[in-house]
Amino acid sequence: MNKVYHRIEKIAGSVITIRASGVKNGELAEVTSRHGVSLANVIRLEDDMVSLQVFTGTRGIGTDSKVRFLGRPMQTAFSDALMGRIFNGIGDPRDKGPAFQDNMIEIGGPSVNPAKRIIPRNMVRTGIPMIDVFNTLVESQKLPIFSVAGEPYNNVLARIALQAEVDVIILGGMGLKYDDYLFFRDTLEENGALSRSVMFVHTAADPTVECLMVPDVSLAVAEQFALQDKRVLVLLTDMTNFADAMKEIAITMEQIPSNRGYPGDLYSQLASRYEKAVDFEGSGSITILAVTTMPGDDVTHPVPDNTGYITEGQFYLRNGRIEPFGSLSRLKQQVNGKTRDDHRQIMNTMIQLYANYKETLEKQSMGFRMSDWDGKLLRYGERFEKELMALAVNIPLEEALDLCWSILNDCFEPAETGIPTKLIDQFWPKKKADAPRAESARSGDGEGDETKEEEKIEEKVADSKKEKAP
Question: Which of 73, 89, 118 is a domain's end point?
Answer without folding.
Answer: 73
